[in-house]
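Sequence in, structure out.
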Amino acid sequence: MSTIVDPSSNAHYVDFAEYVDFQLQKARQQIRTTDILWAGTVAVSVIVGYLFLFVVCDQWLFPGGLPLSFRWLGLLGILGFLTVWIGWRIGQPLLRRVGMLFAAKEVELSEPALRSNLLNWVDLQEDGRKVNPDVLRAIERQAAVQLAKINVADAIDHRPLVQSAYVLLGIVVLFCGYFVLSPKKPGPSLWRVLPLVDVKPPTRTEIVSVKPGDTTVLARSFVDVEANLAGAIPKQVRLLFTTADRKFRDEVVVMQPDAEGSVRYRGRLAGENGQGLLRDLTYRIEAGDAVSLTYRVTVEQPPSARVEGVEVVAPSYMNLPSEKVTGGTFTGWEGSTVRLTATANTTIKTAMIQFLDEPQGKPTGEEVAAKVNRERNITAEWNLEIRADGTFTTYFRVQVATEDGQTDPAPAVYQMTIRRDQPPEVVLLSPERDLEAPANAVIPLLVMARDPDFELGPVTLVVDKAGKVIHRQVLSEGKQRAVQLQHEWSLGPLDLKPGDDLTFWIEAQDNRQPKRNRKSTTPLHVQIL
């Protein structure tokens, strides 16, 4: 039998028919592989090209990015194309065999020296007609000899595959260049290819983070918003908020940088009139061409107390009835006892009465612990006192705390007025000036005294000699609103000598308790002759 050496089979000898069939099988496999690779390269080129076109359109052709409807149409279109293309150009070659005649034709086109011997051999083999064995052997021999001179894999036309690979390479290079040179990051646009993904379109200015984002705060609290930027930093960064009741809509708060050149900006949501937040709101940040997501601030009612009433009990020496007022604003005499009742809006653990000098100021540190009864009822008691420097607090509030430590960030402030127990008034009508008298003289005194609000206490003559009180005499026990006194002051019992210098004055007290108010006349001098 005639044989031929197969160059690719390490000198393995085969007959002509087997060799031709072997080479045709290689050609068929090469044709299938090339077709599948070409179809796959085209599919990848279409995908990369679509992504590049989507990124460009999303970033530059449509302000605010491609509309959602366009994104859906684009995604469904590209998926439909890929489904048809892969099924037609990849699925079918995988499921169907490449015909022997087609493979022979591909090899004949690349090697004209075969002179149709390969096509004739395949045609005769598949037709099944009886052919002269010598003729068939001659055809086999010619085909085998020519096939031995060529590489069947190289005989297959790879130009479509090479061309599609160059197209893919060009698109990839173009896309990479855009990644490097574009002022906008392509990443967000690539995510936006999927319409179900909620990603903002890319911008020159990038809002990297927003704190606190969605949050829940207590009523009358403040919310400090922080934004970190990247990319092109604009001249102004704005915080816009809208309240749930639409009373305020897209109100602007200009955010300030932490420092010169800083990329961190801060702004505060302070509520109406800067008194803290009272209702739910939404907010967003605008920086250059970037707009953040819209965040929500939920406002919850904090634990708080409402003063139901106050009873003011004046000191007993005033002989005044107690006074009851509704609410927390009241007026009381100094030294009065205040009994307060309040109700909390939720279950609380502790309550404290805090005093303030200004309605919007901080507590002075003066506090009175309150009692919590039945979990929500609050009672407290304290005395109205005037400080040593003559001042007194004019405002108070009830600060409550829950079991988990929550407090009211801005408790209601109530005003209180403390009325002073005014000191008595005393006048020495006679004598009116310094005088001279012998040691046994009698000096007539005329005194008028009154208490402007309650009763007088003792009215006393006080005599001083050389810085020491040598005589004190009660002229009246008081116990009335006003008195007018005439008194004959005898100098004889004082055992005075010529040249002595006396100083005297009239002192009046009132009935204030536990410490009386005092007032004295201007001291006068008596020179002993």
